[in-house]
Amino acid sequence: MESSKSTNTLSRSLKSRHIQMIAIGGAIGTGLFLGSGSAIHTSGPSIILSYLIVGIFCFLLMRAIGELLLSDTSKHSFLDFVKLYLGDRWEFVTGWTYWFCWISLAMADLTATGIYIKYWFPGVPQWVPPLVILLCLFCANMVNVGLFGELESWFSMIKVVAIILLVVVGVGLALFHVKTSSSTASFSNLVSHGGFFPTGAHGFLMSFQMVVFAFVGIEMVGLTAGETDNPELNLPKAINSLPIRIGLFYVGSMIAVMSVYPWNKITTTASPFVQVFSGIGIIGAAGILNFVVLTAAISATNSCLFSTSRTMYALSMGGNASSFLNRLGRNGVPNIALNFSTAFLLIIVVLNYFIPAGVFNLVSSVSTINFVVVWVVLLIVHVKYRRANPKGVKAFKMPGYPIADYISLVFFIFILGFLLVSSSTRVAMIISIVSVATMLLVYQLTQKKS
Questions:
Q1: Residue 80 above 80 pLDDT?
Q2: Would 39 be classed as within a structural domain?
Q3: What is the pTM (predicted TM-score) of this model?
Q4: Domain count of the chain?
Q5: What is the pLDDT of residue 225?
Q6: Do the domain assignments include residue 192?
Q7: For the domain that residue 272 is a member of, what is the CATH number?
């Protein structure tokens, strides 16, 4: 397949605050709000260390992506660098893997929106909210990329405010040893109920798969390079603020939660956020959190429409998808690629009623694994780039290269290995391996036809 040149170029309408909030939104998912209860139950306070470790490696990953993007700002996304340093084959595999990552996450999040809406309107059929939300987001993304950035900024703001409130409230309760419904808030709760590693090494290691899930999507800022106003200034600013976000949103929130409630008293049936807010007598805490997780799910779907359409555009420009998909509207939006991704999700909405919830859990696990595979590929690309360009980008060099790259690669490959041997994720890991192998085969057959 040959790519056709587009008469237009992607619109550079994303401002500094858009990039900042997109980066923040990519670092905060529904996993933190809803999944953290079961994660705490599995590993106890040691999950704080898990978030810190994974956060450090995600920061190094983003620095590597940032240096790649700033080495040539004429490139549209990190997929262009995969093509340049690993060839067409791996651009094809990485691009379509990444597309599937976001599509499968959006499947689960769209389904979740139907469940969240039922909290207030139990009589509404579960397929209606996903349909309405998907069509609204599609229309917003069709207008221009600036509107996408504006929506994502507000969605991210809601999540940020909720977390800041949690941290402030939790720390305040712990400092003044306020009594809650089940205990007394104190920082000593982090170590006085079986120690910092109450479930041992196995529980600590098991927490990594849940923590990695919380970080998926963090690399999405790497798709905004072609539509960012002044990328040389805005991309480094967004990436360098990542440690602050990790410290506040993940480490800070987990410290606050487990200081207010001992880890072994946090239930898995309700979000820890609800338990903290309810513990200080906030009326309607469950309803407030339901609104927050609803916006988080809508945000994830909004990000999906952006990332999948730009991924397909990049694949098309690289000759790894139909040239029809790289056509841009007058507003600089890849409308055909956006239509394709939306239509695919529309099919999922229609079939949602017939598919058991367990299938979506499996798809989400597969998606998480594939995200890590994409991260490994991007780190390899960065190593190849620095070998070809030893000086790197003077203003934004990867810290600790090459040791930082190799340690990051070992860490993420270790995560994949652990997911393979873990009984709870083995099936998802096997499906991911088969999917990558299938894409390699499809590429080979496609090239033979060409």
A1: yes
A2: yes
A3: 0.83
A4: 1
A5: 57
A6: yes
A7: 1.20.1740.10
